[in-house]
Structures are given as structure tokens and as C-alpha cells.
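Check out one such.
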Amino acid sequence: MEKSLTPPAINLEATSDPKTKVYLALLSVQIFFGIHYFAAKEVLKEIPAPTWASLRVTLGAIVMLLLVLPRAKKNFPRSIKDFGLIFVYSIFGVAINQICFTEGLARTIPTHSAIINTVIPITTLLFAILFKKETFSLGKALSILVSLSGVLYLLGIDKFDLSSNYIFGDLLTLTNALSFSLFLVISKEIVMRYDPFVITAILLAFGSTIITGYGASSLTVFEPTKISGYVWAWGIFIVIFPTVLAYFFNYWALKRVESSFVAFFIYIQPPIAATLSIIFRGEQLTLRMIISAILIFIGSLLSVRARRLG
């Protein structure tokens, strides 16, 4: 895996077929995120969720800014308005997204989190319709209802119980998915005008200021020397791959294809997350998980068919 993923920028630019570049970028993102569910759960054993969310985004922002500095003068946004828009996008694409993801994962299991996040293609479609980026049709409405029914079934809507072990974690994860979907739709226009690498760096920088404020109290009592090398190793992986490279690849692809297409690749995540959790965490794959994943996937297939039919 390291041989194919370590130099992504070189590999992508060396590929002659533009579609292949996009596929490689989006496939890499989902592999990173698929491993991330397991990795983050390991990190959260020793580092509190607010602390880890702050560290992850702040370190990611630092790495990105250091990489971007050589091209800063030429590619940074020129207007205050654009900086303001990027700040707003960072609230949804970084701050709310990362806080709810981390807090949610701390309260649920990786497979639940991965399955819930597969609703992103459908919620992206929903926001695209609401913002008139895509036209409404009965087929698209049906696809949204079928997929959301899968999420509601996973949440146990048929026997809803607020005392359930995972309900709050699952709801936070759903909020994370909704926030990221909104981000994909509203940030499309500005991505088309700037270098995705620069935009990613600015997004993470803005997002880190918000998340650091959220995690400030936990950061003041955090003792890094008490954290094991095993956890720090996973932490470094998360900062480099599911943060820096994943955000960059997502934006790089978003500049070339529709936001709904970018989101569709998320279906690669659950099998990776479930396999790692079953093997290393002893997690049980339940019938409810399988049924909900199938419903969400059917909904997305219906959305693809609805788009083709116009």
C-alpha cells in the first residue's frame, strides 16, 4: 500500500487519462477514510475526543501551510470576500464535520460510523436540489427516501430508545455527514477558481482556529508524554493520510467532477472499516447493519438512475 500511496501527486499527474486520475484520487481518499475509523478509535482510547479533534486539524493545517508557502503569492485568494467564503466553508467542511465525527466515533462503533457516512452521496444530492444545483424529480426524491430509511433503521427508529449505547454517537455522526454534504455543494464554485492545494490549506487553517477553541479546556490538561507510541503512530497516519491528503484529493477531484460523483465513492469505506473492526476489535456485524447498508446503497443507485433519466 505504501508504494502506491506515498507519492500521490506524482502518480496522479503522471497518469495520462483524466478520468483515471480522478478515480485514483477518490479511491485513495476512501481507503484512507476506511482505515481511519479503526485508527481514530485506537487514538481515542488514550486521547479525549476534543483534544484529538484539535490536534488533528491543527497539525494538518500546519503541514498543509508549509507545503503551500512556496506557491502562496501566486495562488492565494485575492479578495476579502473569498477569504470570508472559505471561512464559512471551513465551518461545515472542517469544524462541524470533524468535531461531530470525532465525538460521534467516541460514542459509537466504527462500522456504525462508516455506514452512516455512506448517506453522504444522498444528502449531497438533497442539498444540491435545495440549492438548485440539480433539478428535482420523483426518482431523486425516492432515492433520498430509501437511503435515509436505511440510516433511520440503523438508528433503531423502529424501537427508538434514547438510552441506547450508540444513539448519540450515531446522531453526531449523521450531523457530520450532513455538514460535509453541505460543504461539498456550497464550496464547488470557489474550488473551480483556485488551486485545490491552497484552498485545502486555508480551509484547515480556518477550521483549526474554530476547533482549537472548542477543545481549549481539554488541551490545557493534555499530557503528550503519557500517550503511547502506538497511539502517536496512528495519530501521525491520520494527520498525513485521512486529513492532509484526503482533503487535498477531495478538492482536486471536486474541481474536475460533480460533487455527487465525489461523494459516491464513499461506499468503499464500510467494508474496510468493518473488516478491520471485526478482525482487530472483535466487533460483530449485525443483520441491522447489513440491511441499513443495503438500503442506503440502493438509494444511491436509484439516484444515479434518476440522473441518467434527467
Notes: The chain has one domain: 17-132+160-286. The mean pLDDT is 87. DSSP finds 17 helices and no strands in the chain.
